[in-house]
């Protein structure tokens, strides 16, 4: 393998994820050319202005021309349409990948839309509540996991190049099958978003009763929920529809556990509550010790984008 895993990458979808990949490749893989494409003309113009790619393609049909890697960074419900649109320019040798938050349905959509092409899906577990081209930054993937889900018949050499690509952008890479990915992410990412969307909606309904107190006193826990609940509606609608079975299974478990805590409160059983909270505090501490806390106040700052940033 040369010092750059891919000569030219086409990024389809130039929002938070696509924009961050564009910045990161230019900063950390200077030997790779970045071509950008987005279905939205306004986004394409903004991406050109922000320098998210070396060049913005003139049409979907030509976007993949000459690229040995094409990464779909569109909402998971738009993967099929995006893949069909760029198919005319896509070489049979190119590797097709994506960054979608769910993997089984995306893998199936890409394989069906692009028969005879190499498809190896991936999911960088890194993001923010922001979206759009100006939300991207070069260090988004640094020290974050990227989960690669190669299908059983994937070419191991192509998988290795995709792993090298993500490692060059600063990610730690893990490989697993798509179904397992979807179960794990249902509990670690999808369910927390559903809970945040619910609690913020509930509080807002109650606001009519409490006359603005919800907003006024939202300094702590509630404010953290509002950050998550500000995440992109299109993206999350698609995530829940595409990972339906795993999310419903985890929601069932969650509901049972919530009922246990509800019972303990009603019965005045402090031991159950104390033991539970002690266990969850240890989990949070474990996450921080593993270096998984991301010092969020830095998120989205423009000085994350310069080529002056060094990899590693
Ligand atoms: N936001 C996060 O925290 C996060 C983290 C990891 C993975 N993801 C995944 O990354 C993907 C992109 O998310 P994002 O946050 O960058 O969204 P975003 O809204 O910031 O950007 C998505 C872009 O895709 C474009 N698009 C939509 N349909 C298209 C099509 N058919 N062809 C070309 N372009 C099209 C939109 O115009 C938009 O510019 C999603 O699949 C999401 O699940 C998101
Ligand atoms: O930190 C956040 O704002 C995120 O929601 C990022 C987050 C997550 O749940 O961890 C959201 C969705 C992605 O698919 C990956 C990462």
Automatic annotation (TrEMBL):
<dbReference type="InterPro" id="IPR050812">
    <property type="entry name" value="Preph/Arog_dehydrog"/>
</dbReference>
<dbReference type="InterPro" id="IPR036291">
    <property type="entry name" value="NAD(P)-bd_dom_sf"/>
</dbReference>
<keyword id="KW-0057">Aromatic amino acid biosynthesis</keyword>
<keyword id="KW-0827">Tyrosine biosynthesis</keyword>
<keyword id="KW-0520">NAD</keyword>
<comment type="pathway">
    <text>Amino-acid biosynthesis; L-tyrosine biosynthesis; (4-hydroxyphenyl)pyruvate from prephenate (NAD(+) route): step 1/1.</text>
</comment>
<keyword id="KW-0028">Amino-acid biosynthesis</keyword>
<comment type="similarity">
    <text>Belongs to the prephenate/arogenate dehydrogenase family.</text>
</comment>
<dbReference type="InterPro" id="IPR003099">
    <property type="entry name" value="Prephen_DH"/>
</dbReference>
<dbReference type="GO" id="GO:0070403">
    <property type="term" value="F:NAD+ binding"/>
</dbReference>
<dbReference type="GO" id="GO:0006571">
    <property type="term" value="P:tyrosine biosynthetic process"/>
</dbReference>
<protein>
    <recommendedName>
        <fullName>prephenate dehydrogenase</fullName>
        <ecNumber>1.3.1.12</ecNumber>
    </recommendedName>
</protein>
<dbReference type="GO" id="GO:0008977">
    <property type="term" value="F:prephenate dehydrogenase (NAD+) activity"/>
</dbReference>
<dbReference type="Pfam" id="PF02153">
    <property type="entry name" value="PDH_N"/>
</dbReference>
<feature type="region of interest" description="Disordered">
    <location>
        <begin position="293"/>
        <end position="312"/>
    </location>
</feature>
<dbReference type="GO" id="GO:0004665">
    <property type="term" value="F:prephenate dehydrogenase (NADP+) activity"/>
</dbReference>
<keyword id="KW-0560">Oxidoreductase</keyword>
<dbReference type="InterPro" id="IPR046826">
    <property type="entry name" value="PDH_N"/>
</dbReference>
<dbReference type="InterPro" id="IPR046825">
    <property type="entry name" value="PDH_C"/>
</dbReference>
<feature type="domain" description="Prephenate/arogenate dehydrogenase">
    <location>
        <begin position="7"/>
        <end position="295"/>
    </location>
</feature>
<dbReference type="Pfam" id="PF20463">
    <property type="entry name" value="PDH_C"/>
</dbReference>
<dbReference type="InterPro" id="IPR008927">
    <property type="entry name" value="6-PGluconate_DH-like_C_sf"/>
</dbReference>
